[in-house]
Automatic annotation (TrEMBL):
Protein name: Pyruvate, phosphate dikinase
Domain PEP-utilising enzyme mobile stretches: 433-515
A Pfam family: PEP-utilizers_C
Active-site residue list: H466, C865
Family annotation (InterPro entries): ATP_grasp_subdomain_1 (IPR013815), PEP-util_enz_mobile_dom (IPR008279), PEP_util_AS (IPR018274), PEP_util_C (IPR000121), Phosphohistidine_dom_sf (IPR036637), PPDK_AMP/ATP-bd (IPR002192), Pyruvate_phosphate_dikinase (IPR010121), Pyrv/PenolPyrv_kinase-like_dom (IPR015813)
Amino acid sequence: MSENKDPHVAESGVEGVKFVYDFTEGNKDLKDLLGGKGANLAEMTNLGLPVPPGFTITTEACKTYLESGEEPAALRDEVSAHLEALEAQMGKKLGQADNPLLVSVRSGAKFSMPGMMDTVLNIGLSDKSVQGLAKQAGDERFAWDSYRRLIQMFGKTVLGVDGELFEDALEAAKSAKKVTVDTDLEAADLKKLVTKFKKIVKTEAGRDFPQDPREQMDLAIKAVFDSWNGDRAKLYRRQERIPHDLGTAVNICSMVFGNLGPDSGTGVAFTRDPASGHQGVYGDYLQNAQGEDVVAGIRNTVPLAELEQIDKKSYDQLMQIMETLENHYKDLCDIEFTIERGQLWMLQTRVGKRTAGAAFRIATQLVDQGLIDETEALQRVTGAQLAQLMFPRFDEHAKAEQVGRGIAASPGAAVGKAVFDSYTAVKWSRSGEKVILVRRETNPDDLDGMIAAEGILTSRGGKTSHAAVVARGMGKTCVCGAEELEVDTKRRRMTVPGGHIVEEGDLISIDGSTGKVYLGEVPVVPSPVVEYFEGRMHAGADDADELVEAVHRIMAFADRKRRLRVRANADNAEDALRARRFGAQGIGLCRTEHMFLGDRRELVERLILADTETEREAALEQLLPLQKKDFVELFEAMDGLPVTVRLLDPPLHEFLPDITELSVRVALAESRKDANENDLRLLQAVHRLHEANPMLGLRGVRLGLVIPGLFTMQVRAIAEAAAERKNAKGDPRAEIMIPLVGTVQELEIVRDEADQVIAEVQAATGVELKLAIGTMIELPRAALTADQIAEAAEFFSFGTNDLTQTVWGFSRDDVEASFFTAYLEKGIFGVSPFETIDKDGVGSLVKAAAKAGRETRPDLKLGVCGEHGGDPESVHFFHEVGLDYVSCSPFRIPVARLEAGRAATQSAGSDHR
């Protein structure tokens, strides 16, 4: 290979690309090419850990197959070459009759997608080789158990046979034998089961179960490739925002067996508790089993700590390996292992999924241990996780009827109606119901129901079961392994201790932090993290828990590192004070229309109904002191910090009665011949101001230009309030924002009027006022002519809610309910553009406007005040394009602060979590 060649190019030059890597060739940094599983198997092999030999087919092979519908021409030869090398190393041949090599075929994408894609174990078994395996192992029962597992997994995964047919046959075999667990079935029972399974395959798939081991392997590889585009995999990627074009690698690994008897077994281990973050021995172990038994929760496991009594040698070796891996990866590691007759084998490791609380605790623990620095700690947590920690929790002092307790798999307080299948969970959720998905155990087919539910409750499985792993990844409340609860999915009910029956639709509550299950609805109380942000709990105090301390430390570091300032969207002093407690550095959006409601609506009606200039001025004179009082209170609450006041934005008809209700009232009054003169005038005004599309009509700056005195009254109120606050030795920093500007001429006219009013107030009060005047950029034309608009604006605030509507041609109030669900399901949207900024469309306008505006006015202040200002992914975008601040609702301020810090320190190669 020449020195300038890409390391991933095959020496043979066949098609130019190398599609297969031995485990000895890769490393953990090749996740794009080898997938997470393959890269980490290679890394463990490099570390000298006991990994069964094998090789990985790259994601490039998968992408080629998915694009063309055919495997790359060179792939078969490369697989054959690596298979021959594996056979030579193992001293066995794939599926040979007397001494068979068996392999697993396992998926492994760049990002962990637990259970979403396909795996087939025991490839290479056939009617002939099962005899050889029995002889090789000296255990006939083991061989036939492995064979029935292969037919079952292969039939479901590769041939598309309904998995319940195999499950029903297995249950029938246990029933006939009068046993409850599959380990009580003997070799003769399993032989009969194999015959039954083959008949199921023949009937359902229309073909015999393949006896050629290479055909088994090739079909399994294709099935894994195809599973990348399976419904559940696509749904999971949309949920986790994983790109759809990555493809999956395929790992071919020589089989080691945990189902060889009591001195064998399989398990999953965590180097720290993924639910709490605490250090200790965490995981599950199952004797005489293969890996799918643990994840599926078919049999209840024992805690990993019990392995010390079962097999101390393997336990001690596992503890040493866990320490090695955590120190090497410098993070919580999730490990799969098998013990084959006392020999420990490592089947997988990855940086483990964890709950939000565990993420913050582990990040600070690793800093204290010297494994990572504060910059890396900041990358180990997310704003979404912080938001989860701010959700309410159950009131431990409330009267509640506890009916069970399982394993606290993923924290949170979830209340909802019990449902017993995913279809019902989705259906009821779309109808506005909150539901708890109750299952014996979940499997990948339950994903859509898990997403729809408030929480998940299972009677089987542990912290490493499918339900637990997926729930933690989604931040969904989950209680697993509540054994005393008898779940009957066919009759759609659950029996709790004492005989009480929970029917579908009954309210239940589950606590993912304690594992407790309650009947009915349990009241909730604020999170301690919210209490910390509001100043009711102090980090370092005796009553502060370690979670609050961890949050405090990471937030302090984020605040030191971030460049973006964080302001609040707040319209009154109460919200402003709360925002300030949450860390707001000013108000980025005060919506003055909220000040015109309530008792003031009558004054607005008088303004709208005014027939003469005198009547209009009288209404404005009455509104002026009320507006001034609003601003005095706001400037006092935010003293020393900027307050951006948006002048009246919505259409005036929003302050008038509903046209239908008013028409009916007037019609009824006229029929009684006692019509109210004011109602008649109101109805005329409503008709006069009625617009087919009011959000694109007479609103924003257009109101200020068409309704004389409206904007000048508001500017006067702001200026007089600022002068009064300054006279009281305060430090008001008011900024006046003109909404919905589309051309610089609109802004210039309003600005000239505002400057005149400010000068008048300065002259009358003797107080010098420095009130910045700027505009919202919320129309495409404003963004495209930002260089011109910046000549008259001292700041831009991007109103990304309206900008998204006008760029897409969406009416937010209508489209989210009508077709967004379909767009998300079809993959047109990965996420709603109102939730996370559309970087390609809306974002490109923001970027261009920011650049053009600053070319005209280098000191132009730039911010965003749409709800995107509190969205984690959007905050990173606003940091990248050079905005000065983001503004969001008070509750989202801590999230924005954290993400602004992460954006400032984020490395280009940080992993998706």
